[in-house]
Amino acid sequence: MDHQAKGTKKGRAALKADEAKVDLIAVVVAVNDSEPCLLTIGNADTLPSGPYALEHRSLQSGLRGWVEQQTGHPLGYIEQLYTFADRDRIGAERQERAISISYLALTRKEQATGSANCGWRSWYEYFPWEDHRSGTPVVLDILRPRLIEWAEGASDATTRRERRQRAAIAFGFDDRNWNEELTLQRYELLYESALIEEAGGGGDIAPAAVSGKAMIADHRRILATGIARLRSKIKYRPVVFELMRPSFTLLQLQRTVEALAGRLINKPNFRRLVEQQELVEETGETSLETGGRPAKLYRFRHAVLDDRAVAGTKLPLARA
C-alpha cells in the first residue's frame, strides 16, 4: 500500500535544479516476539538508503530498489516521513547540502529473504528510555540529573526555565504524564544537551547502556521521527495490521500495540475497543501458542478500509 507524496514531479524538478545530493532512507519496522524491530545494515548503525537517480521512476520506486538491493527485503506498506535538509545535518566538513527523504515501511520479519549485510535490532537498543512496559526505565534516573544540570548551566534565567520545562514535558519529570509520542523531542533534547554520541564532543556523554546505540550521521534522528509517527498513527489508523500475520489472537494484537507504544494497555478495554469498531473478524480456528486453553484466531476486516467511518477507526492506548 503506497502513499505517494503530493507534488512528486515538482519535487524532482526542484531537486535537479538545485543539484543537491538526495538520499532516500527507509525506517523499516517489524514486530517479532513482542519486540519492535528495525532493519539495519552495516554494523547495525545505518538505515537502508541510497541516492535518488534519474533512472528511478519515482521516489518510492527508488527507495524500494535500494532497500531490496541492500537487504533482500521487498517493501509493502510505505509512507513518506519527512525531508531532512538542514545545512549542518551531516557535518560541517561537507560543502554541499545533503537532502534525505525518509520513509516509514511496515512489514513482517518472516518476509525477508535475508542478506549478510543486514539484520534486525530492537529499536529500544537505540532508545532505552522509551520502553515503559515494565515500568519507568532505570535509565531515566540517570538521565534526569544530567538534564537538570544542563538546564541549570544556561547563562540566563529565562533559558534555564525554558530548558527545565522542555525536559519535564518531554521526559515526564515533576509528576507529568509520559507521552509516548514525544520520541523525537526527547532525542533532540539529549542531542542539544550533548548526552549522546551523535552530538560530538563537548558534553558529558552518557554510557551506551543509558544513551542508546549510536547511528551514523542523523539516522537515529530519522528513526526517532519514524517511531513518533507510528506511535501516533496506530491510534487513528489500522496500520498495526500491516505488522500482523494473516491470522492472530487478540492477545498477540495487544502485545504488538504495546511493543510499539512502549507501554501496557488495559486488556478488557482494548478488546472492547477492537470489537466495537469491528476491526477484526473470527477465522473459525484456534491457536495453542498461548500455552493455555485454545485461543480464537482473528483476521483484519479489510472492509473497514472502505467504510466511510475509517477516519474514526482508532486503536487508542487504554491506560493500564
TrEMBL record:
SUPFAM superfamilies: Nudix, Winged helix' DNA-binding domain. Residues 240-300 form the NrtR DNA-binding winged helix domain. InterPro entries: NMN_biosyn, NUDIX_hydrolase-like_dom_sf, WH-like_DNA-bd_sf, WH_DNA-bd_sf, WHD_NrtR. It comes from the Bacteria. This is Predicted NAD regulator in Alphaproteobacteria. It comes from Mesorhizobium ventifaucium. The lineage of its organism: Bacteria, Pseudomonadati, Pseudomonadota, Alphaproteobacteria, Hyphomicrobiales.
